[in-house]
Amino acid sequence: MALFSPWTKSKSSGAVLQKATNQGTRLFNQRLVLKVIYDSSPTSRADVARATGLTRTTVSGAVEHLIRSGLTEEVGTGRSTGGKAPILLNVPDEARHLIGVDVGDSRVSGAIVDLRGHVRHESQVPLDGRDGEQALSRIEDLLDRLVAATDKPLLGIGLGTPGFIDTATGTVRWAVNLDWHDLALGERLQKRYRLPVYVANDSQAAALAEYAFGHHGSSNLLVVKVGEGIGAGLVLDGRLFQGTRSGAGEIGHTAVADNRRICRCGRVGCLETVATMHAVLERARELAPDAPDSVLHGTTDPEDITFARLVSAFEAHDRLAREVVLDSAHHLGRTIGALIGSLDPSHVILVGAMTVFGDPWLAAIRREAQRSALTLLVDATRVEIGKLTPNIVVLGSAALLMTRELGLSPAA
Amino acid sequence: MALFSPWTKSKSSGAVLQKATNQGTRLFNQRLVLKVIYDSSPTSRADVARATGLTRTTVSGAVEHLIRSGLTEEVGTGRSTGGKAPILLNVPDEARHLIGVDVGDSRVSGAIVDLRGHVRHESQVPLDGRDGEQALSRIEDLLDRLVAATDKPLLGIGLGTPGFIDTATGTVRWAVNLDWHDLALGERLQKRYRLPVYVANDSQAAALAEYAFGHHGSSNLLVVKVGEGIGAGLVLDGRLFQGTRSGAGEIGHTAVADNRRICRCGRVGCLETVATMHAVLERARELAPDAPDSVLHGTTDPEDITFARLVSAFEAHDRLAREVVLDSAHHLGRTIGALIGSLDPSHVILVGAMTVFGDPWLAAIRREAQRSALTLLVDATRVEIGKLTPNIVVLGSAALLMTRELGLSPAA
DNA sequence: CCCCTTTGTCAAGGCTATGGACTAAGTCCA
DNA sequence: TGGACTTAGTCCATAGCCTTGACAAAGGGG
Q1: Which of A122, A383, B13, B349 is the most buried (most CB within 10 A)?
Q2: Rounded to the nearest 5 degrees, what angle is found at the Cα of A229, between the Cα atoms of A223 and A230?
Q3: Which residues are registered as beta bridge partners of A230?
């Protein structure tokens, strides 16, 4: 009894191109009315009519349908401005439940989320290094639990996973860590749960989360996820951009450094060889023996220098830790500067584990970005650390689902 | 008697959001039918119905309207496949005339173009270093001549000009060379000629030209214009992307080099300091005195080394010329690699004066791009020199007009 | 020559938005 | 307190668009 159709239905029509119909008009206006109510609730039918240009009659019809489907409710009356007091309308937070899933490196996190991005229920399952069919099976276990834990109408499922993902077809083209190739993940889960399913790259999901729930008021933003790897999600003109082969935002392997480090992609000089958690840790381990003034100095086994220790040292203003981390930020800043010059976004949001290095790290990124692109553009672009952690991918997957299924993009 | 509305009309409605109406449905389907006929002409009403999913009845209605407006004509009958022979339909090349204008550094070029991108009439006017109101006046002179030279229904005017251009409002935000700031160029010309007017950045116009007339069969392509300056135009998912402040594609000022050259933007190390015509020429002049084996050696006045001489030397395999040009290509290749990694386009098309250096230059760009981003992506991306020169900006401006006004994007 | 297929048109019907009239329910002012 | 006025929401007739099914036109094939 979904209000709007998932991507599979579009295949049923033999025609390649999309035509317009009267029903399409109705659907469009219904989504429009829902969006206006959602964005400016509480509001009245008359206000919605003014905002959309539709007649009060048409709005009333759409609202009637929305109320029947539970997506809208009447919540008392508002103040009169000289005439009959308006009946206020609202989209109940829990009119639908959304399931969002974050397929991470070591575990799968999932949550039940409401239409405003509030997490209602959380659950996780470790991956224990499993991949292929076994990893998929664990994801299904998690989904089973989440579906069972829902007590509201379920809108569908959204997943964020590393790799090259074709969101239009729900296909995982290539996910190294999970050993998935051309896996029709969306179709498979849709058949199992009989719900709309959307799949996106994890960085892209993060971008959608910031777009939907970050309250940036922008329709052009880049989210750069820096942790074990580096990837970006691009929301351009209010739409997720994935590129021709789902590879948009794969900035981790941009050549930036003149070092000779071999990247997991097989080439040298990649951004990932200098700016990931692993990279800074390696660098610290390399330099520690020659840095007697550092708290990281004097360990016999390099493995003793953990990421947590590096963070502590950094926060204690340890010279070596600062140097290593800020040098990585330098390279990241140059790449981000190039991105700003190419795409002129209004926001660049940094997320991922490396954001623990906080303001000094951010400042170094900003400084170098400033040196790397037109001042006019860089100065006008807000480079910030995201505030949605650690659920950002879960929220983004849910946002993808909500946007595609209901046409809602909360903070656009 | 335009079939579809230009951007100004959208202001007349008080509502902010766009509603759907029955008339909107009709308009949409009419554009759809026109597009199908345009793309696969000659074709029949029945074929259009099959391609769109509309009924034959609806298609007939739309075609009737299109024939009345001259945008479609019946051109005989096709072969029967066992029943009545279909009446073939076509969009006449000259159903409308388009005016495209390229506001260059030293002159303004304009042309009358038909719906297939054939240039029917050309005209130019020198700028003689004029800017501001005087430059605008020259453009109007050119337009007056072009409008007078048209003998077919005129669809409108498209302009490509350097600078930051907001195409949505037809405003020139900032054009250094012409000394234009926040100039409502579109509005002004629209009032003067009472025709739809669209304005875009020149690199963006070039991108639209390649998209529309380049027959690449792609909806994600980047056009990089390398001449006096360096700029890119981005067509992403079939739409021109301009960024938040119309600054998307301003890659000329990406930091790439460790040199100390001061760029016109005030910073150092910009791509434009190493890869433009001016930059390679300067570099050749610098190195010539120390290169006795070069044909460029031994000139007393550096000014004697012209761009034309550099090109000759390059083509004659002069070592110095090769080194200078291919070194510039190296930096360009790295930037293009980064773009490919960020945006995963299917094509990167190089245009502008620097393309005279041809295949060796292109090969150097490709080689470095390959080293600068994921092999998977770079190998799948076609990096080529455009074939639409020298009219590419004129054609792109016309393509912008045609796309926005008729919904046609010829080679999508 | 007859049957079948395909094309294009026609008329009836269904769906959606619109516009004016109408009711309900407030404010404002005398 | 009451009447004029304003605003919200609904009702109903109408217009516009697409669809459905029927039908004529026109061609192929045995």
Answers
A1: B349
A2: 30
A3: A226
* Nearest CB to B342; choose among A248, A334, A377: A248
What is the residue whose two structure tokens read 């992307």?
B241
Residue B15 in contact with partner chain A when CB distance is under 8 A: yes
Query: Cβ contacts (< 8 Å) between B232 and chain A: which residues?
Result: 342
B88 near B42, Cβ under 8 Å?
yes
- Candidate CATH numbers 3.40.50.11540, 3.40.50.300, 3.90.226.10, 3.30.420.40; the one for domain B221-385: 3.30.420.40
| B:38-97 Cβ neighbours of strand D under 7 Å | 53-55, 57-58, 61-62, 77, 80, 82-85
Where, residue-wise, is CATH 3.30.420.40 in chain A?
97-214+392-400, 221-385
- Give me the CATH code for the B20-90 domain, please: 1.10.10.10
Nearest CA to B165 among B126, B125, B205, B211?
Answer: B205
Contacting residues of B for A14, CB less than 8 Å apart: 50, 53
Sequence length of chain B is: 412
Q: Closest CA to C25 C1' — which residue?
A: A84
**Residues of chain B with confidence (pLDDT) below 50:** 1-13, 411-412
Beta-carbon separation of A341 and B250 below 8 A = yes
Q: How many residues does chain A have?
A: 412
- Nearest in space to A159 (alpha carbons), one of A402, A386, A398, A379: A398
| Nearest amino-acid residue to C7, taking CA and C1' | B84
- Say which residue the tokens 């800074």 belong to: A280
Minimal Cβ distance to B25: which of A13, A20, A375: A20
Q: What does the pLDDT look like over A155-212, one tens digit per residue?
A: 999 999 999 999 999 999 999 889 999 999 999 999 999 999 999 999 999 999 999 9
The C-alpha atoms of residue A268 and residue A266 are separated, in whole angstroms, by: 7
Measured CA to CA, the distance from residue A31 to residue A259 in angstroms comes to 52
Distance between B31 CA and the closest CA of chain A, angstroms: 10
Tracing tokens 């012409």 back to the chain, one arrives at B178
What's the pLDDT tens digit per position in B167-201? 999 999 999 889 999 999 999 999 999 999 999 99
Q: How many CB atoms lie within 10 A of CB A385?
A: 18
Using DSSP, state whether A198 is helix, strand or coil.
Answer: strand
A214 close to A382: Cβ distance less than 8 angstroms: no
DSSP A270: B
B-chain CB neighbours of A375 within 8 Å are 265-267
- In whole angstroms, C26 C1' to A62 CA is 25
